[in-house]
Design a protein that fits this description.
five-stranded antiparallel sheet
Length: about 130
């Protein structure tokens, strides 16, 4: 299992089309996740705990794709980045998150995608991205 996590220096609402400076508790993320069920790109919007999930074709190198794509679209607002890998499933992912000083809170869908979220949050899809 692999998680490439970017914490952004902005917080936003897709529904309200608003963006402001992040706080220690409220910040958007870009995430790329790969597990046995597939590969996804995830964008979280902190102001309304909204999430957009895209299933993507598994790349040869997820980290390279994640870094290039995120730098291209969000390079000016990346605050921190983490590459987390484990062969020990969800519990292994939680252990690795903890080693990096991050919350172990994961939102998990029965259909496959999972993503990291700050503690005390409950992200669900509330809007659909325009194509």
């Amino acid at each position: 299992m692999k998680l490439v996590l970017f914490l952004l220096s902005i917080r936003s609402s897709y529904v309200n089309d608003e963006e402001s400076e992040a706080t220690d508790e409220l910040f958007d993320t870009i995430q790329f996740v790969q597990n046995e069920k597939g590969t996804w790109r995830i964008k979280t919007f902190a102001d309304d705990e909204d999430v957009h999930l895209w299933s993507i074709e598994a790349p040869d190198d997820l980290v390279e794709l994640a870094v290039e794509n995120t730098n291209k679209h969000y390079g000016d607002v990346i605050d921190e980045a983490f590459i987390i890998e484990t062969d020990d499933g969800i519990e292994g992912l939680r252990k690795e998150l903890k080693k990096h000083g991050l919350s172990t809170h994961l939102e998990i869908s029965p259909k496959g995608p999972l993503f990291w979220a700050p503690p005390g949050t409950s992200y669900t899809p509330k809007s659909s991205p325009s194509q």
